[in-house]
Amino acid sequence: MRCRSKRTRTTAFTMAAPTEWRPQTLRDPESPEQYFTDERAWQCVADALDAGIPVEVIELQKPPGKKGYVLRLPGCPPVQTIYVKLQLGSDKVIGRSFHQDKLDN
């Protein structure tokens, strides 16, 4: 799976495909005293996909017409949900979003 290897994943920001990858701002539900690292964020995404978490397919605004894949992961209170958005490139998975779900209240 592309999410598990540093060689086949990226979170690089570009104007054509902006990212909001901020795992360091969220506490890890499995270790609430610690914040996510990039490595741990990718591990959680891969584990969730392996577990069959629902994935919503959306059309991206940037780049227009491309598909995005949205997952919602459980957060660590007070954050209820972590919003994750991925894009598949030709040889990499692109982490576009990893932050508190804006629908969280």
What does this protein structure show overall?
With 105 residues, this protein is mainly beta. The protein has one domain (2-100). 12% of the residues lie in helices and 37% in strands. Strands 1, 2, 5, 6, 7 and 8 form a 6-stranded mixed sheet that branches. 18% of the residues are buried.
Q: What layout of secondary structure does this protein have?
A:
Blueprint: E1 9-10, E2 20-21, E3 27-28, E4 31-35, H1 38-50, E5 56-59, E6 67-74, E7 81-88, E8 93-100
Parallel strand pairs: 1-8, 2-8
Antiparallel strand pairs: 3-4, 5-6, 6-7, 7-8
In N-to-C order, the SSE pattern is: EEEEHEEEE
How many angstroms separate the termini? 33 Å
Q: Kindly state the percentage of residues in helix.
A: 10-25%
Domains (count): 1
Poorly predicted ranges: none
Q: Quote the average pLDDT.
A: 93
Structure classification: mainly beta
Number of helices: 1
Percentage of residues in DSSP E strands:
35-45%
Number of strands: 8
Morphology call = globular
Radius of gyration: 13 Å
Largest sheet: 6 strands, mixed
In short:
This protein is 12% helix and 37% strand.
What are the defining features of this structure?
single chain, 105 residues, mainly beta, 6-stranded mixed β-sheet, two-stranded antiparallel ribbon, 1 helix, 12% helix, globular
